[in-house]
Design brief:
heterodimer; A: about 475 residues; mainly alpha; two-stranded antiparallel sheet; B: about 550 residues; alpha/beta; 2-enoyl-CoA Hydratase, Chain A, domain 1; 3 domains; seven-stranded mixed β-sheet; 22 helices
Amino acid sequence: MSSVINSERIPNNVHLGDDRKLQRALEAWQPRFIDWWKEMGPEGFQEDQVYLRTAISVDADGWANFDYVKMPEYRWGIFLADPVKDRKIGFGDNMGMDAWQTVPGEHRNTLRRLIVTQGDTEPASVEQQRLLGQTCPSLYDLRNLFQVNVEEGRHLWAMVYLLHSYFGRDGREEAEALLERRSGNEDKPRILGAFNEPCNHWLSFFMFTYFTDRDGKYQLLALAESGFDPLSRTTRFMLTEEAHHMFVGEKGVGRVLKRTCELMKKNSNMDARAEGGIDLPTLQKYVNLWYSVSLDLFGGEISSNAANYFAAGIKGRAHEERSYEDHMALEGSMTFDVPTSNGGFEKQEVPLRTAMNEILRQEYVADSQRGIDNWNKIIRKADIDFEITLPSTRFHRDTGIYAGMKFDPSGRLLSDEEWEKKKGDFLPTAEDEAYIKSLMTKPIFEPGKMANWIAPPAKGIKGRPVDFVYVRHDAS
Amino acid sequence: MDDRIEFATHPDRYKHWQLSCDGDVARLVMKVDEQHPMRGGYDLKLNSYDLSVDIELADAVQRLRFEHPEVKSVLVTSGTDNCFCAGANIYMLGSSSHGFKVNFCKFTNETRLYLEQACEQSGQHYIAACNGVASGGGYELALACEEIYLQDDGSSAVSFPETPLLAVLPGTGGLTRLVDKRKVRRDLADAFSTLAEGIRGKRAVDWDLVDGVFPRSKFDDKVTERAKAIAANTPDRKGPGVELPPVDVTIEEVDGKPVRRYPHVTLTIDHGERTAHIEMRAPTDDPATTADALREQGARAWALAAFRELDDAILQLRFNEPEVGLIVISTKGDGAKVKAHDEALAKLMADDWFANEVHWNMARVLKRLDLTARSLFATIEPGSCFVGSLFELALAADRSYMLEGELEDGDAGEAAIGFSSLNFGPLPMSNGLTRLQTRFLARPEHVDALAKRQDETFTAEDAAELGLVTFTPDDIDWEDDVRIAIEERVSISPDALTGMEANLRFAGPETLETKIFARLSAWQNWIFQRPNAVGERGALTMYGRPERPEFDWRRT
């Protein structure tokens, strides 16, 4: 079991103290990170004491240590999952060879690009969410937001550690650039499109943590299989933290649903909006939106890059080792309905490796459905006849073979006119957005109190009551 | 015959480009319609191109020169998000025959050179506004422009991924332009050309790969500002422009042989003999002697019409007749008329932009003939008119046959050749020399002496004596000698002939142009054939496939 020396400026389990050069590089980066956090992190709460979980080591007790801390003083550290002895590359053309402990020159640029792309999403989401605290529905939710934020910050650290350790000067420059790009900035945008859209209210935040962070989970699962061992170990540890983000999303949406059902019953017309809640059809539209933009993050259905990553042993499938028998993936194929220029579809058989993005996406789809089932249980329990569903994977896509085409949520092809007429039924309209925001104009700082549109959680954090002071907002 | 490639197009019919002119600044916006490649089997993703895309570009460059004299700077940019241009489509290359690939690269190279020459010859300055990734042929397109600007957004890069990713070379002069035109330091060029993801932002400027970077929010304004500044420093060319209608052609079959008949050119294909015959005819009218009269004739002017027709015929042969190994060139008509048209043009082109464009077009078409990888024979018979610009056809040929004396049953008199002032400078080859200078590399004084004899014509004996023709059979031997020469020529290995001819045609100094074509022919075409690129496990074969390439590690 690796231990952590916490007296160091940067808590870690990678023997940072033994590598003066790396330590100096990271210590030089640290103040810039703090500056970034103060500028782009949660606005208006930097001086507050927040009841946060801090990883202080990777073992079962150490990674979930709870205490009050001011966010800029949060101990962002570098933690890798423990090494697996004699680990071999588990898939692709290099299968069976010793896992790489340093970056193989041949794959240097590819690995750097993957790490930078993954790393870029972490600060991006903090930036997207920086104003949410000002409209929080409860102290409990405010704390969860900050927990997610600091952990995204730590994930950035994890990627920066890899860049500094293994990619020389280029890596250091990339690490700098991660702090220079800004979500939604026209001149210095974040790399992926979805991370440049603001997350400007809490319903979007819950949807983001449920759907978009789940993409993160699957990307991390695929990278956890990597033949580049430091990447594998880093991402394995990150996964433990990512789980909490999806918990926030699933429970958050679930509580909204629960409240909506209560408000419907309260109203003689079953009208949740009339009672200041978020009606079920609107919730469905937000599911449609966030699910479809998250599907895009997996990349094109047919991808030679994905095939190359797999072939090289750089990025595998989720749970490659435990869920699959054939780790070469040279046999077999996947069939797609590919749009043709005359408006129809034709079957196209794609070699398995070339379809790796889609394989990962399908696992994501199945995983996303599980939470949907739980949400529907809440609605059924309230005796309301409504079902939240996931739209077709063709719906509202901007990447891959269905990009730019118009489908309804059931996957039926629409003409441009039909789409224009109906899109307001499928996706949130400007009016919906305005309505949702009108519900969330003021923060609620009173311990235990919830905004009208959301139900309280079943229980608090780490055995604390729901009305625990999770954030000491006026602490000075 | 459906899959024949045709080259005529018009901005109204472009699928992949948008051409718009606003005063003296034009915008050439690449927005490739991925669903409309030249033939099926691949999508033109990320503004990648195939021949159909480049035919439109070539058309646009040509039209800007003739139809838009008011334009002084041209912004080449992209209408596709986050991507300037990804270069030639890899799947198209992977599924094309070797011959097609070579001719595709040659055509795209010619187009890049035309664009480059428009700066110098027409005062139309091309500026690459790379508002997204410019990779491979995309960066090569930018390199052909006079200045390159790159969007500084953290992701837009310029790159040559060919070598590290595909095991081939940038095929459109990129490496040559990097070190010869932009004069990028060779060690930096080396690092750049092996870095698949390329270089962006400030470093691209530091390494001289681009002339400047601008942030996304200011990019359009800045490049437009630059285009306007360049235009402001360029002299005016008086309009109006001259419209280029499609080349007039009828396709028929005579004695089982396909014939393309143009007003001044006839192309006859003899598949059995693997030979094509090009006949080019002299003008029958008197030349326009004033700029206004020439403008009035416009695209109908002989010097423009005849050479546009020849250009189309050459492209037809290159792309649609791969097995034709030999082109036999003949002419017909009054040589005096050719000379009269040449001299009238030569007089006008000093002051009139249109006459100048007509002459540069002539020069381009003749270069295209030089660069055509088929054997070229000229046959000079009574009734022919190898004079001035048309005599360049004989000089471009690998050898020429001139009939000595009169034909027994003919009434056309003796065959004669002659010069015009166009033979002595205005129609350079890609090596920068005239065809006469290249022919007489050892005796420059001989060319000077010939220049003094522009008013004479020469029959076979004199022509042979002066070294202007190769063989001069008489009436008795003519038919047999020519027939045997043709049969012999088409029996030799086409590959060996291509190499031999290219070696012999371009004597004299190297220029950017000769380097580009020579290296395309030698290096790129060699690498394109090698197993490491196109073998069963070669990188180009494996691209987009699930397995990784395997290399034979032995170096030559």
